[in-house]
Amino acid sequence: MALKNIIGIDHAVVMVRDLDRAAENYRQLGFTLSPRGTHSAHMGTGNYTIMFDPDYMELLGVLVATEHNAPARAFVDRHGEGIERIAFTAIDSAAGAEEIRARGLTPIGPTDFERPVTLPDGTISAAKFRTFMWPTAEAPGGVRIFACQHKTRETVWIPELMKHANAAKRIRQTLIATPEPAQDAAHLGRLIDREPRTEADGAVAVPSGGDRADFVYLTLEQLGKRYPGVPLTGLSARGGAALVLVSGDLAATEKALGPATLRSGAAICVPPAKANGTLLAFVAG
């Protein structure tokens, strides 16, 4: 039985050491960023979002150490910056948590939180969420997963924030490095009730649901062969490695990325060393 309350990848969380410096870096790469958000006190984190349609990226930094953000801090200590977790869209987080409990897993949450949002007209509103996480130990390829119910979509998907100079439109794939692609893909498949499929180069993809981005598990060697000439310095052998982004105009992408650009086959890439631990590969829509 497929999970009824979980639909596809919602957003990718990139953990960073210095939140404001990372935001400026991504602005230089042609992304439009939301104003900085500060999460509820128990979370102790702040963020900037990079909004696409129907998904987005989140730059996340720890502002105050709390029990809740201990796993995120441990990730940065072990691996440095990069993709630390992936969110699914939840229709109903409370019901979704009960679905995975019925499968013998103990969910973390559901947890309600919010952050203030400055709207384009200058008024202050709030973005409100209800999330739950799969158990911390259930992290295929070293990447944690959780589900996010958006209670105020209108304060998150703001049209002015969805237009990017680099022409990014949406996430096509989340690439996760692992020495055991088949094993970790099967692990995720069990957690979200999706069937893995082996790709031509031996990588293993897991659909996230609907028309949302796929997960792809692959070795660092396979990643290097997919993007020849792109230095993978800073990536761990196990963990979130890359995001494949759909571009509406590759010429605009190349112009916006400027000196960070590396062409690799049909993709225009930013190596992880220049994108806070995450390889960015822009491809035609």
Sequence-ordered SSE layout with sheet pairings:
Layout: E1 6-15, H1 19-28, E2 37-38, E3 45-51, E4 56-62, H2 70-79, E5 82-90, H3 93-102, E6 108-118, E7 124-133, E8 144-150, E9 168-177, H4 181-192, E10 197-198, E11 204-207, E12 214-218, H5 220-226, E13 239-247, H6 250-257, E14 262-264, E15 267-270, E16 279-284
Parallel strand pairs: 1-4, 5-8, 9-12, 13-16
Antiparallel strand pairs: 1-5, 2-3, 3-4, 6-7, 7-8, 9-13, 10-11, 11-12, 14-15, 15-16
What does this structure look like?
Strand 10 and strand 11 (204-207) form a beta hairpin. Helices cover 20% and strands 37% of the residues. The chain has helices spanning 19-28, 70-79, 93-102, 181-192, 220-226, 250-257; strands at residues 6-15, 37-38, 45-51, 56-62, 82-90, 108-118, 124-133, 144-150, 168-177, 197-198, 204-207, 214-218, 239-247, 262-264, 267-270, 279-284. The strands form two sheets. Strands 2-3-4-1-5-8-7-6 form an eight-stranded mixed β-sheet. An eight-stranded mixed β-sheet has the order 10-11-12-9-13-16-15-14. The protein contains six helices and 16 strands. The chain is of the alpha+beta class and 285 residues long. Residues 8-150 form the VOC domain.
